[in-house]
Write a structure and sequence with these properties.
The chain has 261 residues and is an all-alpha fold. The chain contains nine helices and no strands. Helix 6 packs across helix 9.
Amino acid sequence: MNGAGEAKRLPPSIGGLIGFALRSWAAYAPLYVGLALFVLAAYALAEWLVPAATASSPLGHFKQYVLGYTGLFADALVVAAVALGVAARSADAVASPRALTGAAIERWLPVIAVSFLAQAVVALTYAVSGFGPALEPRALQYVMAPFVWILWGILGLTGPLVALAADRRVFSVLYGFVHAFTTSLHRENILRLCVLAIVTVLPNVLQAVATNALDAHHVARPLFWGDALIDVVTVGPIAAVQTAFALDFAQRAGAFDETPP
C-alpha cells in the first residue's frame, strides 16, 4: 500500500478527516468492539488482582499505575488494528477482520514499546498539563498546559505510525517518534495539530471528571468505573482519528512512506 496513494483519498477539511476516521472505525466495528472487550477483560483482571482503593490514597496511586500499564499493553493491539483498518480504507483496499487481527498481532510488540516511551513522556509532563494537582504559581500550568497538550497530540501519532511502518524491528519505534514530530510540526499542519491535541486529551478530561466524581461520592472502584471504562470506549475511535491525521500530516508535509497492506 503506497502512502501517497492513501493520502490522495483523504478528505481535505478537518471535519471531513474526522468523519472519515470515524466511518473507517465503524466499517470494522464488530472487530474493534471485540478488541475493546479484550481491553475490558485485561482491566477487569487487574482490578480483581489489586484491592479497591480511593484515587488519592497510596494504594490508589499504585493501582493507577497497574491499570495504566495494563491499558497500555491491551490498547496497543487496538491501536494497531485500527491504524491498519484506517490505512486500508484510505487506499480503497479490502481487508478482512481476520487479516487485520493477524497484522495487528504482528505489530503489537513495537506499538507497546513506542506507547511505553510515549507514556513516560506524558508522565514527566503531567504535572503541568492542568490535570494534576494545582502548582504554584498557578500561571505556570495555565501557560504550559496548551503546549503539553500539543506534545501529547504528537505522541498520540507514534502508535499508529509504528503500526503502519514497513520495518517492524526496533528501529520502527524510533521511526514513529521522528516521523510524528517532523510531519506534525510542519507549518502546513500546525492548525490541524491543535485540533488533534484537543481530540487526544478529551479522554483525559472525561477520566478526570468521572474519577473525581465517583471518588467524591464514595463509589467503589472509581478507577475502574472512571478511567478504565472511558479508555475502553474511546481508544478505538481516538486511534482512528490519530491515524487519519497521521496520514494527512504526511501528505501535507510532503513525506510519504511505504506502509503495509
